[in-house]
Amino acid sequence: MNNKTIILILGACGQIGRELTVALREIHGTSHVIASDRYANRTDVPNYMQIDVLDGERLKHVVKQHGVTQIYLLAAMLSAKGEQDANAAWNLNMQSLITVLNIARDEKLDKVFWPSSIAVFGPRSLKFNCPQETRTDPETVYGISKRAGEYWCNYYYEKYGVDVRSLRLPGLISASAPTGGGTTNYAVNIFHEAIKHQYFECYLEESTVLPMLYMKDAIRAIIKIMSAPSEKIKVRTAYNLGGISFAPCDLAAEIRKYIPDLKVVYQPDHRQVIANSWPASMDDSGARNDWGWAHEYNMAAMASAMFESLKAIKKPSLDHYPEFLIEDVAAI
Ligand code: VAH
């Protein structure tokens, strides 16, 4: 552990942020990992502060006051919600990144992590085993903002030497935080609804295959790319990250091994158009070759781990690895 490392996580209360905060605190210690989000009074979270990622002056003040050496920018408006308010999505997703990149340049931060997404691809991208380099015609504000953000990351690396690293994350499945505004949320919500009601209304067609990843694998990938020597990072836009690919009907069949009576009704809504525009599976050989990425959870192992986590309904904490569920699954 490098005692000079001070990490600031922006968006620490979100689906990725909650688990990344605990994982980084296990490595660096709570006092070296500042958790922040837009919410006030999170007195339940040690070493937490309320930060608006669009308040550049306050963010720069916090970085200087606390000697921050790394920023993980996780705050974003996801694909489905972004379609409801394009300007808000573009402003949040883009301005927060530019603000962080400028602070990283001016304060000479060691590293920045910023998640991109498979949402940068569109209907003219290769559908299966989608390569790192192919047409990217995103058809959502979220995807457009993520693709633009990738170019900004590369620009700040090339022009100013900012060591910003990024991954095109697939849909993420985790037990520890509610999912909000995404198109892949069904893959989390189905677990909660199956447990509570043995019934789930799925907003995607049963055969819609999408790239997915269990959160523990995603957290491992983020930590791995951020700890890799700079010379191993050959892609300064964002690396494709794959893992598992499945459709709602595949996941429902897996869950029925635990809850045999689960009934799923498929009622595609506006999110079907978004899902149709994305690849079904990813070629992430670049990440595997350059810095040793390899996923560990297949769909069966993910489902088993989810049910293990869902058994222990404790109050969420950002200080212990999240073997817990959120208290009120209705919040999903
Ligand atoms: C979303 N969970 O659904 C995000 C993700 C690939 C999907 O970027 O918008």
TrEMBL record:
Cross-referenced Pfam families, in alphabetical order?
A: Epimerase
Q: Which InterPro entries match?
A: Epimerase_deHydtase, NAD(P)-bd_dom_sf, NAD(P)_epim/dehydratase
Residues covered by the NAD-dependent epimerase/dehydratase domain:
7-242
Output the superkingdom of the source species: Bacteria
Protein family per UniProt? Belongs to the NAD(P)-dependent epimerase/dehydratase family.
Name assigned to this protein: NAD-dependent epimerase/dehydratase family protein
Organism expressing this protein natively: Mucilaginibacter aquariorum
